[in-house]
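Methods: example folding runs. The two proteins below were folded one after another, and each record is reproduced exactly as written to the output file, sequence line first and structure-token line second.
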Amino acid sequence: MTFPIKDADAVDIETLGIALDDEGTFTLTIKGYSHRLTGEELLEEMRDQLDVRSSVRGALLRKAEKDILFGLKKGPERLDGEARAAFDLNVLIWFADKALKGAHQGYLAK
């Protein structure tokens, strides 16, 4: 696969080298925090990001990174319901960007 990915039709979990468990999920690790995603969530977000202009994607990514760092500093388990949902969405946005660029393997839990 050629990175960065520019064609939504070329995106699939196997090509990304992500092993799914029996439930269709995988775990990624960010600074000691483990987060579970489904393969379908990731693919859908990657396709959505490919439909958005790069300048908008960049702005969304900067906000996601800022919110993730705040959530990690506070502790994801201590976030209230709405803040936790936003944190989870931002992790998805951030990881989808990493996968589109081919920089996602280092974050996958072994």
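Second run, written to the same file directly after the first:
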Amino acid sequence: MSKIAIVGSGFGALTTVRELRRRKVAAEITVISPRDELHYLPGSIWIPAGLRTPGQLKIPLANFFARSGVQFVKAAATGLADGGRTVLSEAGSHANDHLVIAAGVRFIRKLPGIEHALVPCEGIVVAEEISRRLTALDSGVVAVGFATNPNEQGAMRGGPMFEFLFIIDTLLRRQGRRDKIELVFFSPAPRPGARLGDRAVDGLLAEMKRRGIRTHLGQKLVRFDADKVVTEAGEIAANLILFMPGVTGPAWLADAGLPLSPGGMIRADAQCRAEGMANVWVVGDIGSYPGPEWLPKQAHQADLQAKAAAANIASALSGADARENFKSELICIVDTLDSGMIVYRTPDRNFVGPRSRAFHWMKRAFETHYLRPYR
């Protein structure tokens, strides 16, 4: 029986499992990851407002793996050998005929003083800490911002920071505390969120102005202090700093013999194959792919890449050519706690919907729908 190894247990990895089994691939599947839970980070934006608890966003995967006939190895990957035919991990080595690398990314923590900032996408525990510190803040300034990988401009996650900004604003207004706490949004980019499209950026900046959120844009970051954000053009006093740095690949990629992009991601083609590698497939944030400059690093795009990779593995195992290209598509609802703004983008279309309460409820309903197969 053929062996498929999947590194990672996030969105892309789990969708790969589902798609392989949906296509009746009877291979032995081994998932290698230090985490046997799916952490639904998109829902962590609601933890400070009490709409979600950490327990609701951590989904144990044992039942899903059992139903899917998956062998799970609880260990971190440490490298590859034999041109990808062996995965090295903390729990030993794992042979495969096809390898899917969906291990996610790590945040670039090189900016001096970054320990003074909270990085929301580092985990649900960070959202809990944001909630705790926000509750304890009687007055002052909350600074929210993001940056990118300087060697790969698309290697960022900015969307959640817009959501934390607007949700905190709405929450403080509900609590009657907004007049005592100033909100500031900062970014080295003069027009942050450009991958969403010009109309979306205009809408986001207009929403900040409407809410009285001060902006500090287009100025290179120098460092963080405990009580300020320092840029080349000035300082932002801050009692609480939320910051999303750019992302790069896991450290073990450096010695894995894989083709890497300038930003430290695995170079992959439109079929999600690692360039120049046989039967090595790349899914999700960890990859650097061809496509439009706005190609997102988000769960939905990881799912689309997983579908393509699974289709191509199924074709290869049946003796056919791997010809399935992944679809480039951005779908984002920027939530504000009481409403939301939807952005949709493909190579042929860019749609920005009006702010509506319906989009907030759509986002909550989608979470329930998305997690159902794993519960």
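Comment on the second run: The domain at 109-243 is CATH 3.50.50.60 (FAD/NAD(P)-binding domain).
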